[in-house]
Amino acid sequence: MDRHSQHPDERSSLVHDAQPVEHTPSTLKRVGRAIRGHKVELVTDAHQSPEENRLHREKVYAWLQGLRVPFLLASGVAYVWMHSVLLSAILFAISIPLPWIAVVIANGVGERRDPRQPAVYKPAIAREYNEFLLQQQQQQALGRGDSDTIIDHDHDEEQTP
């Protein structure tokens, strides 16, 4: 029977007869995190990988270098057609430091590594990769069958004791 279709007196008796809520382990964990102040790292707080960082710096470099030419053209247009020396000088002055700024940003280090994170070195992966490359080179050398290779061997008949 639906609880909304019950008589008001019956609903009040159901409220008083309710059993206490059992705390499940997940509920207790949630309460514990709230008390301890568990900090969850958000995706927006995550650091960029070094590759992503380098690609971002390359894009910024390209944009800043690309903006220099339009500023120089706008400076010339302002001087020739608008006869505005002040506007031309301002646009030209903006275009002067753009290459320097672009190079400084492109040569930037990027985000610093968090010292609390462990530095992980995995020599086994590098060793396996080097072995794989060596096997590929050996297979290519065998499959190629160099025609320049001469194999000499002694015949038993030609040798005299």
Characteristics of this structure?
161 residues, mainly alpha, 0% strand, flat, transmembrane, membrane, DUF3099 domain-containing protein
Notes on the protein architecture:
Helix 3 runs antiparallel to helix 4 (85-95) and helix 3 packs antiparallel against helix 5 (98-106). The model has no long low-confidence stretch (mean pLDDT 76). It is flat, with a radius of gyration of 38 Å. The chain is an all-alpha fold and 161 residues long. The protein starts with 7 loop residues before the first helix and ends in a 17-residue tail after the last helix. It has a domain at 54-109. The protein contains six helices and no strands.
SS strand fraction: under 5%
Number of helices: 6
Work out the helicity level. 55-70%
Helix-and-strand structural type: mainly alpha
Mean pLDDT across all residues, rounded?
76
Organism: Corynebacterium gerontici
Keywords: Membrane, Transmembrane, Transmembrane helix
InterPro entries: DUF3099
Protein name: DUF3099 domain-containing protein
